[in-house]
Amino acid sequence: MAAMSSSSAVSSQYSDFIGLHRNSIPSTCAAGNAGSSRFLPLRFRRFQIRAGKASPLLAGRPLRVAVIGGGPAGGATAETLAKGGVETVLIERKLDNCKPCGGAIPLCMVGEFDLPLDIIDRRVTKMKMISPSNVAVDIGRTLKPNEYIGMVRREVLDAYLRGRAAEAGAAVINGLFLRMDQPPAGSGERYKIYYIEYSGHGSGTGEKKEMEVDAIVGADGANSRVAKEMGAGEYEYAIAFQERVKIPEDKMEYYKERAEMYVGDDVSPDFYGWVFPKCDHVAVGTGTVTHKSDIKRFQAATRLRARDKIAGGKIIRVEAHPIPEHPRPRRVLDRVALVGDAAGYVTKCSGEGIYFAAKSGRMCAEAIVEGSANGRRMIDEGDLRRYLDRFDRTYWPTYKVLDVLQKLFYRSNPAREAFVEMCADEYVQKMTFDSYLYKRVVPGNPLEDLKLAVNTIGSLVRANALRREMANIS
Amino acid sequence: MASSMPPSLPSIFSTFSAKTHQRHPHGILLSVCHRNLPSLFVCRSVDDGSEAAAVEEKKVESAANTAAAKVENKAEVKEEEDEPLGSSNGAAAAKLEPSAFKDPRWVRGTWDLSQFVRDGNTDWDAVIDAEAGRRKWLEGNPQASSNDEPVLFDTSIIPWWAWVKRYHLPEAELLNGRAAMVGFFTAYFVDSLTGIGLVNQMGNFFCKTLLFVAVAGVLLIRKNEDIEKLKKLIEETTFYDKQWRATWQDDNKGDSRNG
What we know:
The structure holds two protein chains of two kinds. Chain A contains 15 helices and 18 strands. Chain A has helices spanning 7-15, 17-20, 51-54, 72-83, 107-112, 154-168, 225-230, 249-254, 295-305, 307-310, 354-371, 381-409, 413-423, 426-438, 446-473, and strands spanning 64-68, 87-92, 104-105, 120-124, 126-130, 136-139, 149-152, 171-181, 191-198, 206-213, 215-218, 237-246, 258-262, 273-277, 282-288, 314-324, 332-333, 336-338. Chain A has an eight-stranded mixed β-sheet. In chain A, strands 6-5-13-14-15-12-16 form a seven-stranded mixed β-sheet, with helices on both faces. Chain A has a three-stranded antiparallel β-sheet with strand order 3-7-4. Chain A starts with 6 loop residues before the first helix and ends with a helix. By secondary structure, chain B is mostly helical. Among the domains of chain B are: 106-143 and 150-158, no CATH class; 166-201; 203-246. Chain B has helices at 14-35, 40-46, 53-64, 68-82, 90-93, 124-140, 160-194, 198-201, 205-220, 225-249, 253-257; strands at 106-107, 110-111, 117-118, 121-122. In chain B, the strands form two sheets. A two-stranded antiparallel ribbon of chain B has the order 1-2. A two-stranded antiparallel ribbon of chain B has the order 3-4. In chain B, helix 3 (53-64) runs antiparallel to helix 4 (68-82) and helix 7 crosses helix 9 (205-220). The longest helix of chain B has 35 residues, at 160-194. Chain B is flat and about 70 Å long. The two termini of chain B are 27 Å apart. The chains are: A alpha/beta, B mainly alpha. Chains A and B meet through strand 12, helix 9, helix 10, strand 16 and helix 12 of A and helix 1, helix 2, helix 3, helix 4 and helix 5 of B. Chain A: Keywords: Chlorophyll biosynthesis, NADP, Oxidoreductase, Photosynthesis.
């Protein structure tokens, strides 16, 4: 990526902050627009002004950033900011929150975020994919002994990451973000956030407080209030519905290292049903985007399909949560940025979000630290856009491939049958796990890829042909 | 429930039109209602784990946003809470006796090919019919997946020529017939207009292009609906990209798309 630093041009722009946001390029005209006015739209690679380096020195105080939300995204952001010398405030409304979540983290997250191994309750090394006609395929044969999918409890993971942020110097506040006052775009003035600070001990009552900050990172999840405040726009979302079921020991043994995925129109028209092992119980759930009002029916169908394996279990908890389907239209506005679920970084097909939340938080923090020269200078929208650019370029292939897989294999029962048939192939298993565990889209062997393509088409054609027969029967 | 699909290769595209129809209204309706969750308390308790399970369910209901279903679902969920799973509960109880798929030829999770022998050879057509029947039955009566009696059948045991003979050849005959008719009349038409004979047409670039367009058209557009389907498919392939790039466009186009 070419980077162009034209400090003289920038400094003259900075002398007139209003001018910064008046673009001469008509197609990028909008109120409150980017500081790097020289980028071309619709392209990921563009010229970037390293505006932050030339921006005004903060007089006698470090940059102060408020991170709203203390999940994986917020925790990772706060830790990296604090380590970088930025004054960080992390506001989390519920410090013992058990976020309803599948809880699966890829192997690379353990390494990249130095997670201690005792955070991981279970290591899943086998997955069973079950087709609409109950054809069951075991995947995981190609995993090496040290490879696994980690299952964590969200309350444990979140608390750990927040603890690390606090150790690095971030101030963790138990409070609820209410709203923010945004200064005029490009003025360089501070933001004001309003929040309720809880006195602790679960009293539920708190006092209204306000704080002035230089930048805000919205890490407050799918129902992000920061996103609403900054006008980030809406996204389509899936409802994920999950029941925690305590099953007898002998049945639990089967799920010791195994997770199951059920696909079918009965279980979900556009997603999958799952049975994931947790610390001492399993989570049985399903999700959907298009038929949210039928979620109970889908859940009943999921329970039915897993009936024999969870027989005798007791439901100990019922939970649901929205999952974003795609990023919000606007993820950065002036000096407010969104990360994690608030930005909408959940993959299609697998619905994975924890790793991308933490990684996007870290990338955003790194961009802020870089743009502010370790907290010494004021940042601007260009610095935050650099985080967006980096994240998009690094993970776009992953997201796109998963989107293609979802469009191809989740659209109908024949497609799902073909999907499960394909999963029996060793090459597919290897590619799937490699890309999931390490977040790399590796091209692989061209000959094998060709064979795979032929086999996929064959499976799809056969399944659709059978579908035609089924239509003729009725 | 699955709906029957028109018997053509682009049939895999057919379900997404239903999907995209529902996508936007649902998105709008639910995003509006979602934001109408009135009080702070309600917002917090949607995913608040420490609340009592009963309250949890109520909030879960509003998250799923079903008006009519609320009452009956609440009762259903409470019932499930009290009983252990495995005993029949909720909607699953009604039609589900543990009646697995029963067929004399379905042995130990796969079709016993020795029972499909006809005139000394395996009757693959009958195998295809049997599997279609099984899947049809399962669609109406979803079964629990069982570890003791796993389903092992893989459609690839049916040889490729059986599939080709049954599904590809009739369609190919149809398409070839269409292509021949279109080709003949186009060649006649071009000849009458320009006087170029058939052999000389094949040497002309424009005519070759016409030929290519005719072949592609016959292959891709087999029913009237296919034109719309193709357009939607093209839009669908780039939709996700557009959603990701919305933040770079920085104008109101991105907002209106995701209503």
